[in-house]
Structure formats: structure tokens, C-alpha cells
Amino acid sequence: MTRFSAGTHPLLGRRALLKAIVAGAGVAAVPGLAACGSDGGGAATDAVSFGNNQSDQVPKDAITAVLKAFEGESGLKVAINTKQHEQYQEQINNYLQGKPDDVLSWFAGYRMRFFAEKGLTGDLSEVWSKVSGGYEPALKEASTASDGKQYLIPFVQYPWGVFYRKSVWQQRGYEQPKTLDELVALATKMRADGLVPIAFAQKQGWPGMGTFDQLNFRLNGYQFHVDLMAGKEDWQGPKVREVFDTWKRLLPLHQENALGRDWQEAAQALQQGKAGMYLLGSFVAQQFKGPDLDDLDFFPYPEINPEHGQDTVEAPIDGFMMSRKPANPEGARKLLEYLSTPAAQLAYLKADPSQIPTSNKADTSGYTPLQKKSAQVIKDAAHITQFLDRDTDPRFASDAATNGLNAFIQNPDDLDSILKGMADQAKTIFSE
Amino acid sequence: MTALDSPAKPAGASAPSPTSRRGRRRRATALAPRDKLVLGLMLGVPSLLHLALVWVPALGSVGLSFSSWDGIGGFADIDWVGFQNYVDIFTRYPRFWPAVQHNLIWLLFLLVVPTVAGLLLAVLLDRQLRFGRIYQSALYLPMVVSLALVGFIWQLIYQPEQGLLNNVLGTASTDPVNWLGDPDINLYAVLVAAGWRHTGYVMLLYLAGLKSVDPALKEAAALDGANAWQTFFRVTFPVLKPVNVVVLVVTVIEGLRAFDIVYVINKGRNGLELLSVLVTDNIIGESSRIGWGSALAVVLLLISLGFIITYLFQVFREEERT
Amino acid sequence: MTLAFRPARVALHAFLVLTCLATLAPLLWALYASLRTYDDTARNGYFSVAESLTLDNFTTAWTQADLPHYYLNTLIVTVPALVLVLLLSSMVAYGVSRFGFRFNVALLMLFTAGNLLPQQVIVTPLWRLYLLTPLPSWLSDSGMLLDSQLGLVLIHVAFQSGFCVFVLSNYMKTIPRELGEAARVDGAGVFRQYWQVILPLCRPALAALATLEFTWIYNDFLWALVLIQTGEKMPITSALQNLKGTFFVDNNLVAAGSLLVALPTLVVFFVLQRQFIGGLTLGSTKG
Q1: Domain C59-284 has what CATH class?
Q2: Which of A114, A205, C210, C274 measures 20 to 30 Å from B211, CA to CA?
């Protein structure tokens, strides 16, 4: 709110405020502050606050455009509170207990249930009763907590897969690998051709979880993934061990120094044709523009264990929750309802076509080839997972899992002690 | 440098007492009731604020360190687990010992490199020197830049392909060193940045200390045929003892507080773990583990208190003596 | 002596010039990067001669990251905190340095030690305390101390008062006691002695502390990171993380943004250098 007043009359606004502060700074510091803080206090009923975790420029502009459209349609004002993507997640616990915004960005899966079951987010069954026709049952299930009520409105979804540039592959005659051995053979060939076979970045701490997940459910199947994430399986057991052993075999084919690189930089290596492929979510397309974007394609991770084939796809759902005591519950529900519409989702994706809508009513005719493929891959899958850090206890994901994977990537030979550390922490956390 | 002569002044007009130079109780009783009230308020309000927002929470951390709590709900939801958190942290938390080790390296580095560099520069600048002020300004300029910003600015230097350092070394295109990504070296890379900021501070403290060295002493030593080294170690350095203590404490506190710079660079992971980061991760992270984080905070508190008490002892003992 | 050892002098100057250049190098490098265009550095790399220099990155950073807004956030916190911390600390310093009473050394030790505690030791219970302290909406639009600028001001005041009390009490001890006594004989109460006699005499120390505390409060990162929940209310130093997301992969913009964020402290440093240095040495070389 201060932002707009300062924005429209930059000098005037700031100077007036400055005066107020200086005048009030002495004994009357407190009222001076209040004058600045409560600018928009009286407008509670026609305003909805919105907690946004899309801090990168492209998605941030996209969500802003959607909310603008909602403002036009509903007559409500939306106050956007943007926080840096990773910071938003780290502070979610304090944020939800403090003074959260009415509607706020979050993810499906265990990660949503954890906070719903703590009573920190609002029941959305009422909204769901109106919008459930627009969602496949799997999406409803992903939005439901253990009490049978819904706490999330799905917005967009994106599959994880192995991304590559068609032109580069055509030129060199590469073919999509169907099995792990073919993948290794291809990667080895790429290296001989002077490419970095598999782009890789782990500075942000989570992208490597994607690699773990793919290897894990390809090797051990969907159910094992679910049980491991729920703390019912042993991190020191042979099955997890095999995942890491496989990864260790692949690690030399990955881009070096992953721990010092952001995923955006790895994506640029792919975009510049320096890297042959990159396992990531389809949001990788945010780093591609124009003709480069048309050149981007992907395939699901190759089969490793014939028993499970390619039956599982990791396709996290991003959506919105409502805080437990929204300042404007009516407005919040209205906004959530709006966000469930194909119109809102498509409007968002127009600026960021790297993902697909979750609404089954969305008009698919305008999809980019990448979106068509994403939708197809998700539709074909027998099982959908969210992501390691969305499918397990946040206390385990953000500390033990992140740092365990980092340690492995750094020193794959220390596997024994790393797995022991992860197992110990899993036991502590899941028994608490 | 200060306060040396004030107690020698007459101890008060109302009731100068020959038996008590400081006249403590006597003075207090001599105040009018209204003055007493005013003085009580002047001392009481700030003290209450300080106690309530600094010491009460610090004790609160100690209390919470015996609990297992996800930080959600009221105090009734807290499970008390005794020393379990400490046992777990010492025995099965893989990040703990590396963090302690990094903190120690951090301390050691800051105590040696910026201190020696700062002292050297202070000695060099402690003379009539053309451009002396300009040199000084340049050297302590980094001090005003926040540690968070230091993290940002130094990333421009340390980037593998585009950074200044690898390009100057000529390794950028061939085999770039990943200064911040390689956990074997990133701690030292960050320490150079932290030391960069700290050196100016140390130099400043020593410069002030050196100004208080009586030039006559140095001249006398020079007349006795002592060379510059001997003069420094026999005459100057002993006089600097109080400054040394201050530098020690400032450095230790700086070392234990270190947080912003690693947090900005990579959230304090992958070779940059520090105790302060572990505390922060566990209490403000998505995974709120209040008891666990508080126990880590108490470890940090105990280490700090050791140094704080040493410092207070040093400072206030001198006060008593004077 | 200065004339006798000319070669030594030259070597000394050469050494100092090199050291200063090395010290300034990171900032100069950031400045250089910030003055170049994205196309230029993308094509030629950063380690190259600039094709052209421009201030565009600064204007872009200024508007795109909405810097004026964050400067203002910082100002809203820093100015009241600065005034309050100096006021409250000088009162305590006055009390402990001018009057003998049973607990004055203990009180001084408490303040001094409190200032040396690591912030992480305090932050969890403080967060909870702030969450549980309701405030009327005219004081804080979040309805509590958490996520309010007032809360941020208070913790800065409480935490920084340790250092200020220590420095000011040392300073006040150097003021001859007769000065206060004279006013007292004239019938001035305790507060008037403080306000009209002692405080004006402390002006140099207060100026020094103000400069120093401005820098410290401006540079705070953790308090706001934890105690402010609304991205829009973040002071500029803690908002850096957001800026990074906004600028991603454009190092020239990151450099420009960083320098803009550092600018106020750099200006204060250059304008008030004497006070800044005075503050540091006042506090630390006592004894």
C-alpha cells in the first residue's frame, strides 16, 4: 500500500512520509510509525491478501496478471505479498502461525497435509463442492487431508522428465533411451562428442531430490516411494542402497560441481547446447525463449526395473491454500474459486507456458507442443508422485534429506556414513 | 583512554565523606524522593526493555532446549524430553560436528589473518604520512558494507567462469576453480571475504591504541639503540594489551555470530555449515524443531558466555582498580 | 626521519597503495560490472574491456526491484530505532556513571553482556513473544508485534542499547562531576541535569554512536528475516534475497543493485567518517 502511494508521486510521497517520521521520531516515535503502517487498514472487506512464492520475474508477472484480471471481475482488491521462492518455503511454518495472507501459495502432498492437520490452514470443502467438476479425482485426492476435507485448490502441474534440444539430437543422431543401459550408452557417447551428458545443479538443495525420486521409483516402484517418504522404510536398507549405487554409476556422467550451481545455470547449459540432456521439471522451459523453446522436448525417465517400467511420473501440483483465519473469508473463497477456473490457469500459463493447467476443462487447443506432451505423460501414468520434499515430513526433507543428498553428491564414496546419518535422523523425526 | 581520572574528583557536593571515596549509599540516600523516582524510571524502562527482549528470550532458549516441539500450538503442546536433544545432537546429527569445526576454523582464521594484517597496517599508518588519511579510508571502507552484501559482491569475484579471480588466475576457461561450490575450499573463500571486512576494523582499533603510546617512550628506546622491531615488541606491544583483549573479544563474537554471509551464499550448506546456521535452519526453517534448534542455540550461548565473561572480567576489573 | 629514508618511504607507499587497491577491488569490480550492458558481458565475458559504459543497470535495478520502497522501509525502522536507542542508553549511562548505587556495576555488565550474545540465541523465544503480543491495529497492521515495524524497532533498541550504554557510560565518566553538581545546587532535578548539562556535553559521543548504529541497524539481516513476514515490509538489507530472484542471471543488475543497497552506508561513511571511527574506538579501546 505504501508502495503505491510512493510509486505514484515518488517525491511527494516519500518526502511527506519522511517528514512524518522525523517529526514523530522523538518521544512520539510510536504514533509516527503507526501513521505509516496502517495505510490501508480500513479496506478489509473489499481486499484480499495473497501470499506469493513466485519471485522470479516471469512467473511473478504472470500471477500478477491473473490477480489483476480477478480484480476486474470481482471488484475486490488483491494485495500481493511476494517472497523469494526458497525463503517462502523456509518460513512457511512461522508464516502460517503468524499473520498469513488470506490466500497463499503452496503444494499438494504430505507437505500440505502436515499443515492442514496442525490446523494452520483453512478447510476448503465448501469451495471444492463448487469446483470439483473441474478436477480429475486424482487431483481431489491430492488436495485432501486425512480428515477427508480439502485444503488446497490445485492450480498448475508439471511433469519431471529428461529434457533435450531436438536440433542438437537430430544433428548428432541421438535417440531416446528406453532403458538405463541405453541412457548410459547415450551419455557416454555424448561425452565423447564433447558435450556434458547430463546437466546438473544442486545449489538450491532440492533439484537432486528429483534424480533420487526417479531412480527410486523406477527401481523400487511407487509404493516403496510412498512408504519410504512416510518413514516406514529403512534408509539403510538394500533398496535405498541400490538407488544410490545406481546414481553413483551415473554421477560421472553428470555436470561437475553441481553444488555450486543454480538450476537456472544448468538449464542455460542445455539451452546453449553445451549439455546433452537435463532431468528437471518442465519449468526448465522458463529459461528458453522463442525458437529455443520450440526446440525443447523431453521423455519420461527410462525404465530400470521391468517390474515397474515407466508406470510412475513425478508431477507436482502447485496450488493455493487459505489461512485458518482469513481477514476476508468471503473474498478468499471467491479468489480461490477463480483460481480453479481454466480461464485463470490459462491466463497464468500464457506468460509461463512451461506448465499445464490442473483444470480438466481447460481448452487444450492452444497448448504448446511441450504442454501437449506434458498433459499426455501425466495422463498415461499409473501413479503420480509429488516430489521428495512434498511427499515427506518437512522436518526430514529440509535438513536430513537435503544435506544427505548434498553429501552424497560431494563424496559418493562416503555412502555408508551418509545413509547411516539419514537413517538415524529419519528414526528420530518420524518417532517424534 | 577514558575514565581514568573521574573517581579522583570530589565525590559529590551534598555529602562528601572522607571514609568512602565513592560515597555510594550515601549519595543514593541524598537524592530527593522525586529525583529517586525519575532516576528509577530513567534506569528502569530501558533495563526492562533490554531484559524482556534480550535476556528473557535467552533464558527461554535454555528452557526450550529440553523440549520436543514443532513450534505449533500453545505451551501445553510441548513435550519435555530432558537432555535428549543434546544427546542426539552430539551423537547422531551429521551436521553438528562439521559446524563446530567450521566455527573453530572461522575463529582461528579471523584471530590470525585480519589481526596480523590489521596490526601491521596500523603500525605502518601510525606516523605522519602523506595520503595517510586516504589510505585509512580505503582500508576501512569495507567495514560499512553489510555481511549480506559482502556475500553478494564476492560472488561476482568467485564465480567459476565469469568471476574476477579465476580470470586473473587464468583458469576460467580451462579448469575453473569452483570457489564457493567446492566444500574443500569454500569455507576459506568465504573467510577471505569476511576477513576483508574485518581487517579494517582491527586496524582501526590498533591505530587508536597506538595513538595512546607515548612517543617519548619510543624515542627513548630508539636512543638506546633499539631497532624498529625491538621498539615495537618491547615498548609498543605491551602498551597495546587492552586493545588486544578488545580485538580478541570483537573477533570471537564476530566469529560466533557469522551467519549472513554464508546464508546469502548458499544457505550455509555444503561446507559452509556454522552453528548459527543450524540454529536458524531448525527454528525458522519449514521444519520447525524448536527444542532441537534451541539446544543448538544453547551450545552457541555457552561458548559465547565463556568469552563474554572473560571480557567482562577484564574490563570491570580494571574499572575497580582505577 | 621522513627525509632520511626515502627509498623506504617509497616502498611503504607502494605497499599501501597496492593494499588499498586490493581492498577496494571487490567494490570496484562490482562497479565495473554494474556499468556494463548485459549484451556486452554476455558476448565478451566479464573479464574484458567494456564496449560502452552506461547507468542503465542502476535505473533498471532502481525501478524493477522497487528500491525506493525498500529504502523507505529501512528508514521507517532505522530512524526511530536510532533516536530511541540513543535516548534510552544515555539515560541508563547517566544513571550508572553519575550515581553510585548498589547495582550499577551489575547493570552495566548486564547491558554489555547482552550486546555480545549471538542473535540466534534470542530469536526463537523472541519470535514467540512477538506472536503473543497483540497490538491495536493503529500501531501495527498485523495486529501484533510480529510482522510490525514497531517490533523491529524495539529489538534493535533493546539489543543495541548494550553497546551504547557501555560507550556512553565510559564517556560520561570523563565529564567532571562538578558540572552536574553546580546545576544541582541551582535546584535542577535529576532529569534536568541529564538533559541540560550532561547530554549536550556528550554530543561527540552521541554523534559517533549515531553514525555507527545507523550502519549496524541498516545492515541488520536476521531480525527482519525472522520477525517480518510480509515481503513488502522487509528492510532493504533483508530484501536482498528477493532482489536476487528478480534479477536472476543478470550479474550486472545484481552488481548495480548491491551497490545501490550499499550506497547509504557508504555515503554516511564518507560524510561522517570521523564520527564513525570515533564511535568504534570510543567503545572498544576503553581502559
Answers
A1: mainly alpha
A2: C210
